[in-house]
Design brief:
The chain is mainly α and 168 residues long. It has nine helices and no strands. The longest helix is centred in the first third of the chain and has 25 residues.
């Protein structure tokens, strides 16, 4: 019986290592974190089943990685509340006026004021200031450095809006 388990474990390790070699650097990082979480969860389940840890202690330990994301999620609470509360029963004209108040045009394009706010530059700044502000923020918020695609897209859009307005 032990030989069968050993062979199955060796085969599983072989398949995992083969798939690991085909991953890109970004996917390897994500796979590493997933592996750590899966192994930790399996260890918790094993300890609960063998009676070494109480179920509630295991539940608290399982929630600890989620607590790290809590502050980031809480900053979106007012926006979510506003979207849920104000979207019900609003006519289209009022919604369009709210979008223009936020800086978006009727076609959903980013306004110059919003682009300046995103890049942290003043209205009427030079092209060099726009490019430098974009580069500085992109170094912090690029998806390859821990940022996300949405923020990088907003930075790129803000840069293109300001540069096109500067050339016009």
């Amino acid at each position: 019986m032990q030989w069968i388990l050993g062979i199955a474990l060796a085969a599983a390790v072989f398949v995992i290592l083969k798939q690991w070699g085909a991953l890109s650097a970004e996917k390897k990082k994500a796979a590493t974190w997933k592996s750590v979480l899966v192994v930790g969860a399996a260890l918790l389940v094993f300890m609960v089943l063998t009676g070494r840890i109480h179920v509630l202690t295991a539940a608290v330990a399982a929630l600890l990685p989620l607590l790290r994301k809590l502050p980031a999620l809480l900053k979106f609470a007012p926006a979510i509340k506003q979207m849920i509360g104000e979207e019900q029963g609003r006519p289209d004209q009022e919604q369009a006026s709210r979008e223009s108040d936020r800086g978006n045009g009727p076609d959903g394009q980013m306004s110059e004021r919003e682009a300046c706010d995103i890049l942290g530059v003043k209205t009427g700044c030079s092209e060099e200031e726009i490019v430098m502000a974009h580069r500085r923020l992109m170094q912090k918020l690029h998806p390859d450095r821990g940022g996300n695609d949405y923020l990088a897209a907003k930075l790129n859009e803000a840069k293109s809006v300001l540069l096109s307005a500067h050339k016009a």
